[in-house]
Amino acid sequence: MSAAPSSPPASAPGRALAEVAARIDRPVVLVGLMGVGKSTVGRKLAGLLGRDFVDADEAIVEAARRSIPEIFETFGEAHFRDGERRVIARLIEERHGVIATGGGAFVDPATRALVLEKGIAVWIDCAIDTLVERTSRRATRPLLRDGNPREILTRLAAERAPFYAEAPIHVTSDTGPHAETARAIIKAIDAWL
């Protein structure tokens, strides 16, 4: 007599993923320096969880009808951070599934408090060499325009790490596929929940 067929191997990971997704009752908010992969990883993460994704920087550009470099040049960083705070608060209130924030958003005390209270904050970290390589692909990073990108990123990493460390979940994004980072985030959220 033959044994009963077992379930296909792919169904177990799918079930486990659905179980984790069902336990997530608030937005997953990705924080970390520019270039760590918050937007790319966020899209992968949202797809795996069956949730929507929104990039806070894109929402800011849409609301302001100006590019981020234009906002910085015309109004300054303080004005940009004020608008960023309001947009992130709106996105959290709208209960989007996965939200990617700008690199400096979580440094703002009001934004950080809101994300920690109403979201699941995930700090995505990576090596400075990787950040330098990734951020060199686009010339749209206002904070990297006036100086050596490696020095600026090293300084920002040191200044912002204590704020990012307040996120209850911390994962590293290496040079591998972003889907691996997304899966690492799901595993870390599952353990945290």
Secondary structure topology:
Elements (H helix, E strand, L loop, with lengths): L10 H13 L4 E4 L6 H12 L3 E3 H9 L3 H8 L1 H17 L4 E3 L8 H10 L1 E6 L2 H8 L13 H16 L4 E4 L5 H15 L1
Parallel strand pairs: 1-3, 1-4, 2-3, 4-5
List keywords for this structure.
single chain; 193 residues; alpha/beta; five-stranded parallel β-sheet; disordered N terminus
Describe this structure in words.
The chain is an alpha/beta fold. The chain has a single domain, classed as P-loop containing nucleotide triphosphate hydrolases (Rossmann fold). The chain is 56% helix and 10% strand. The protein has 9 helices and 5 strands; from the N terminus they run αβαβαααβαβααβα. Strands 2-3-1-4-5 form a 5-stranded parallel beta sheet, with helices on both faces. Helix 5 (77-93) runs parallel beside helix 6 (109-118). The longest helix has 17 residues, at 77-93. The radius of gyration is 18 Å and the shape is globular. Residues 1-10 have low confidence and may be disordered.
* Count of helix runs: 9
Q: What is the count of β-strands? A: 5
Strand numbers in spatial order across the main sheet: 2-3-1-4-5
CATH architecture designation: 3-Layer(aba) Sandwich
Q: Quick one: CATH superfamily?
A: P-loop containing nucleotide triphosphate hydrolases
Our estimate of the beta-strand percent is: 5-15%
CATH class: Alpha Beta
Can you tell me the overall shape?
globular
| Rg estimate, integer Å | 18 Å
Structurally, the number of domains stands at 1
Mean pLDDT: 88
CATH topology type: Rossmann fold
Would you tell me the structural class of the helices and strands?
alpha/beta
Helicity, in percent? 55-70%
